[in-house]
Each structure stands twice: as C-alpha cells, then as structure tokens.
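Hi D.,

Good news: the full-assembly prediction came through. Inputs first.
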Amino acid sequence: MKHFEYFSAHSAEEAVALLQKYSPDALPIAGGTELLVRMKQNLIHPKVLVDITHVPEFQGIALTEDGLRIGSLVTHAEVAASPLVRQYAPAVAAASGSVGAVQTRNLGTLGGNLVSCVPSIDSAPALLVLEAQAVVFGVNGRRQFPLTELFVGPRCSSLTPAELLEAVIIPRHNLGKPACFSKFGRRKALTIALVNAAACVETNPERTHFSQVRLALGAVAPTPIRAYTAEAYLAGKPVAQEVLLEAGRLAAEDAKPIDDFRASAEYRRHLIGVLTRRVIEGALAGMPKV
Amino acid sequence: MAFTIKVKVNGEWKTADVEPEMTLLELLREQWGLTGTKLGCDEGDCGACTVLFDGKPVNSCLVLAVRADGHDVVTVEGLGTAERPHPLQSAFEQHGAVQCGFCAPGMLISAKALLDANPEPAEQEIREALAGNLCRCTGYTKIVEAVKSAGRAMRSSVK
Ligand SMILES: Cc1cc2nc3c(=O)[nH]c(=O)nc-3n(C[C@H](O)[C@H](O)[C@H](O)COP(=O)(O)OP(=O)(O)OC[C@H]3O[C@@H](n4cnc5c(N)ncnc54)[C@H](O)[C@@H]3O)c2cc1C
Ligand code: FES
Ligand code: FES
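Then the structure:
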C-alpha cells in the first residue's frame, strides 16, 4: 500500500472535523475489508485515513422509541448473532450472516457495507424491505432519510466527503414483520451475490391473499432497488404459484439487469424470478401458524 | 509518521514502531519473525493469514498494524509446540490434514476459534467456520475429520 497518514477519531465531531480538514484526500475507515483491498489493488490512494472504529456514537444495537437502531460500526458477526436483530429483524441477521467468511464478518461493518454502495451488498435488500432509515452525521449535525436515498450509483453514495453514516433504524411498525433474505452466488460460501433479494410480506388473516409485499433486489441494477411494479401487482393477489411467477417476471423488468463478467442479463432475469419466489415463500413460511 | 504500539502476542506484550500502511500480517512476519502466519492473497480471500484478534479470527492482511495497539493477538505459534502440540495440531497430523501445509496455520486458528466457542460442532458448522480458509491440496475432508477428532479429544480431556 502507498503511504498515508492515519488518525483515530474518538467522537463523531472529531471524525467529521478531520475529514473536512483533509478533504478531498481523506477517507473514513471502519473494518477496512473493502477499503484496504481497493488500496492494495491500486484503485484508490487516499492520503489520509480517519479511523472511526472508536467513535462511541456509531456503536451498538438498541431498541429505541423509533425502532431498532443498529450502529454503523456494528460488525456483520455482531448483527448476525444479536438476539435483538434475530428477534425483530431476522432477515437482516441472515443477510449479515451471509457476508464473506467468519473472518470477513468479524471485521466488516454494516455501515461500511452500505456506504460502499456496491450494487451487490448483502445488507441492503432486507433493510430496504423493512423501510430502514439512515442516520447521518456531518458538520451541520444529524440528518435522517430513507435508506434508499443513500444509494446513488455503483460505489457512489449520497454522503458528502465529510459526512458519516451513524446508524440505521428499522422503524417500530416493521419490527417482527415476516421477512426473508436470500442470495445466489457461484458457490455457497464466501461469494459475491449474482443476485440477492429480500421480501417483507403481509397477508389477510386467512393467509389466502397478499395485502402488501415489499420486495428488494441487489446486484441487478446500478444500486440496490425496490421492485415497485412487482410490489404493486402483488397487493390483493391470491397466494398462488402463478402469482409468484408473474411477480418474478415483473421484478426482472423493474431491475433491468445487464450482462457482465459474472453473469448474463438473461441468467440474472431467471435468478430474479427464482429468488423472488424464494423470499416470498420464505417470509410466508416464517409466519406464525394460523 | 510512525506509531509506537503495544500488542499482546501469544500472551506476551511486545512493542513496535509501525508506519500506518503496515498490516498486522507484515508486523507479525517481518518485524517479529512470526512466520507461521502466511501471506497468500493479501486481499481477504484465502485465510492463510488468519489470526485471533481479541479471540476472534480475522484476516491479518486486512488489519492495519496500528489498529492492534492494546489488543490481544494469537498466531499459530501460540497454539502449541512440536513437543507439546495443541490437540488440533496432533489431529491434523494424525488425519493427514496437512499436505503442502500452506493453509494449515490459518485452518488451525479458525478451527481453534470454532472449538473454543462450540466444543461439539456439527460437520456443517465446521465447514462454515472454515469457509474462509482455502486449501489447494487436501480437498477439505481430512481437515474436517481432524477438527471433529480434536473436538472429541478436547472434550474427553476436560472431563
Ligand atoms: C473476502 C471478502 C468477502 C466479502 N464478501 C462480501 C459479501 O459476501 N457480501 C457483501 O456485501 N460484501 C462482501 N465483502 C465486502 C466487505 O467486506 C463488506 O462490504 C463490509 O461490510 C465492508 O465494511 P467495512 O467496515 O470493512 O468497510 P471499510 O472497508 O472500512 O469501508 C468501506 C467504504 O465505506 C466507507 N465507510 C465505512 N464506514 C463508513 C461510515 N460509517 N460512514 C461513511 N463512510 C464509511 C469507507 O470510507 C470506504 O469507502 C467482502 C469482502 C472481502 C474482503
Ligand atoms: S493473505 Fe490474508 S486472506 Fe489471503
Ligand atoms: S495443504 Fe496445501 S493448501 Fe492446504
């Protein structure tokens, strides 16, 4: 790696002040599993790294008045093992549990995953279907917005260079809702998703018809996306195979996947259909028995 | 600017002066001569550089050495010696789980973390715990058997 200067920040204010002082040559570092790899590959050369791992405001998982708050510095291993996340948002725990290998999950953070804005990031779909909010800290204090607005394009977030993701909040009204995450890669372990998906499903009390379904997909568009056409189609439809097939077809249209070195657009459209069915069925299966 | 850091390595505190761009892996191998930990891919993919960091397995090629200041690191040298091998090391030997041996230090560290947390892992749990450690020689079967057998040996010795 090329030489850089290193500062360790001990508060959110200090981190932001350092980033602003050295902007545009400074980057924050959390787990480093994304950043250091890109530096070693000579893709980026920050002159200054601001270590944010000791910023207390960005730590911890807690149930608050607003919902379930997960600090940006919480590692994937911690998300996956957290009793709170497993109880109130098991799809989020499953998504973090699917990232890389044990070693990656012990270092990599939820915040680093989201802010990297790689289209295939595994933590995005489940958080999107639970309508998570992003809490961001900058020189002018905090702001909060829907997580969807964090993702601008491949490796491009809506944060300014001196802003940091502080936490995500899963709103109270979505805690414990039936949701499911699934990912498909070239092999079972340690794999970047060719497609990943999550669904949050609500039905009528008899479970014969969908009342509302939220569906999100990754690795099939410049950013992780919600499949709004498929969602609109599903509302009020019977719980039936043909309906799931049609939803999968519509989701592929929402996504408009492209050919790249990992997979062809056609194969990705097929995978979108398969994963759409899988996550909806998974969410239904997770519902308490009627 | 170099940083002076103190790291507890295999139970003993050591100090070093490190540049910010030095990785923990480089510190271990090049400054401290702990060459048991291997440099494979240098990008977090192969697991040859796995060490325990505060008890948890991480890829030392993706940890900046400055970050280790004040922390506890265990490398394969901290597991056992030729005279007094760790049960995992004996099991790897007995089961032929080592061929060229390049992956073995990382495998042993990942397996130790697993058995410390879960003394009786199912085969699937062993495979998941070792998913971040690549082996080009053995085909994994013997490694998984060795971990099972070490788990049994460790359980019977604590009884
Ligand atoms: C072997 C391997 C396997 C992997 N497998 C997967 C996988 O299966 N699925 C997956 O989704 N990812 C995977 N990754 C990618 C990576 O590990 C994850 O995205 C991880 O969550 C990144 O978090 P980090 O804390 O390490 O981020 P860092 O590398 O520290 O940071 C990533 C980027 O985000 C910025 N950043 C970090 N934290 C913040 C913050 N709080 N506010 C603002 N900016 C911030 C950094 O400046 C940097 O640009 C893998 C990586 C490796 C090396
Ligand atoms: S050398 Fe660190 S994971 Fe390969
Ligand atoms: S024994 Fe050769 S790489 Fe595993």
